[in-house]
């Protein structure tokens, strides 16, 4: 089934000028970038986005990191896009990520792991709506 998922190229990757390299992995995997913009996330946006993790010990650090530098938010479209992008990203901890995945190639640590991808179709819809209007998504 054709799906849309939400992606963020995180500050550790934008800082190192890796946006194009990450996008190449995404596109080579058959996912189409149907919306994309570079933004600076506000603290409110980051706290809301990661609300599910707010009781975790790393929450403060995670929010500080996400607002530390610009990020690139994206909508990706393709066959089984949610699961496919999770595969392409690799494991949360780059030390455990498979060869060829974005996190294996580029991530620096579990906290600064280069990309976000939605973990379910329902969350993809919620996350996309937090950053994009329908008119900004061009399939
Ligand atoms: P994912 O980003 O693979 O969906 P997640 O939803 O469990 O992983 O966590 C969200 C982000 O929180 C993750 O990308 C980086 C940060 N994080 C997760 N576990 C962490 C940990 N043990 N220490 C520091 N940061 C962590
Ligand atoms: Mg997650």
TrEMBL record:
<feature type="active site" description="Pros-phosphohistidine intermediate">
    <location>
        <position position="116"/>
    </location>
</feature>
<dbReference type="GO" id="GO:0005524">
    <property type="term" value="F:ATP binding"/>
</dbReference>
<comment type="similarity">
    <text>Belongs to the NDK family.</text>
</comment>
<dbReference type="InterPro" id="IPR034907">
    <property type="entry name" value="NDK-like_dom"/>
</dbReference>
<feature type="binding site">
    <location>
        <position position="92"/>
    </location>
    <ligand>
        <name>ATP</name>
    </ligand>
</feature>
<keyword id="KW-0547">Nucleotide-binding</keyword>
<keyword id="KW-0067">ATP-binding</keyword>
<keyword id="KW-0479">Metal-binding</keyword>
<dbReference type="InterPro" id="IPR001564">
    <property type="entry name" value="Nucleoside_diP_kinase"/>
</dbReference>
<feature type="domain" description="Nucleoside diphosphate kinase-like">
    <location>
        <begin position="2"/>
        <end position="139"/>
    </location>
</feature>
<dbReference type="GO" id="GO:0006241">
    <property type="term" value="P:CTP biosynthetic process"/>
</dbReference>
<dbReference type="InterPro" id="IPR023005">
    <property type="entry name" value="Nucleoside_diP_kinase_AS"/>
</dbReference>
<keyword id="KW-0963">Cytoplasm</keyword>
<dbReference type="GO" id="GO:0046872">
    <property type="term" value="F:metal ion binding"/>
</dbReference>
<comment type="function">
    <text>Major role in the synthesis of nucleoside triphosphates other than ATP. The ATP gamma phosphate is transferred to the NDP beta phosphate via a ping-pong mechanism, using a phosphorylated active-site intermediate.</text>
</comment>
<feature type="binding site">
    <location>
        <position position="103"/>
    </location>
    <ligand>
        <name>ATP</name>
    </ligand>
</feature>
<keyword id="KW-0418">Kinase</keyword>
<feature type="binding site">
    <location>
        <position position="113"/>
    </location>
    <ligand>
        <name>ATP</name>
    </ligand>
</feature>
<keyword id="KW-0546">Nucleotide metabolism</keyword>
<feature type="binding site">
    <location>
        <position position="58"/>
    </location>
    <ligand>
        <name>ATP</name>
    </ligand>
</feature>
<feature type="binding site">
    <location>
        <position position="86"/>
    </location>
    <ligand>
        <name>ATP</name>
    </ligand>
</feature>
<feature type="binding site">
    <location>
        <position position="10"/>
    </location>
    <ligand>
        <name>ATP</name>
    </ligand>
</feature>
<keyword id="KW-0460">Magnesium</keyword>
<dbReference type="GO" id="GO:0005737">
    <property type="term" value="C:cytoplasm"/>
</dbReference>
<dbReference type="GO" id="GO:0006228">
    <property type="term" value="P:UTP biosynthetic process"/>
</dbReference>
<dbReference type="Pfam" id="PF00334">
    <property type="entry name" value="NDK"/>
</dbReference>
<dbReference type="InterPro" id="IPR036850">
    <property type="entry name" value="NDK-like_dom_sf"/>
</dbReference>
<dbReference type="GO" id="GO:0006183">
    <property type="term" value="P:GTP biosynthetic process"/>
</dbReference>
<keyword id="KW-0808">Transferase</keyword>
<keyword id="KW-0597">Phosphoprotein</keyword>
<protein>
    <recommendedName>
        <fullName>Nucleoside diphosphate kinase</fullName>
        <ecNumber>2.7.4.6</ecNumber>
    </recommendedName>
</protein>
<dbReference type="GO" id="GO:0004550">
    <property type="term" value="F:nucleoside diphosphate kinase activity"/>
</dbReference>
<comment type="subunit">
    <text>Homotetramer.</text>
</comment>
């Amino acid at each position: 089934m054709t799906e849309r998922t939400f992606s963020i190229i995180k500050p550790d990757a934008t800082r190192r000028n890796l946006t194009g390299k990450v996008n190449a992995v995404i596109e080579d995997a058959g996912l189409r970038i149907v919306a994309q913009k570079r933004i600076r996330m506000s603290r409110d946006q980051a706290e809301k986005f990661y609300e599910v993790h707010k009781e975790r010990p790393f929450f403060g650090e995670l929010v500080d990191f996400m607002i530390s530098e610009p990020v690139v938010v994206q909508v990706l479209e393709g066959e089984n896009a949610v699961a496919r992008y999770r595969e392409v990203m690799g494991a949360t901890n780059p030390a455990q990520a498979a060869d060829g995945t974005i996190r294996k190639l580029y991530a620096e640590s579990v906290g600064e792991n280069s990309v976000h991808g939605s973990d379910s179709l329902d969350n993809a819809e919620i996350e996309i709506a937090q950053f994009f209007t329908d008119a900004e998504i061009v399939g």
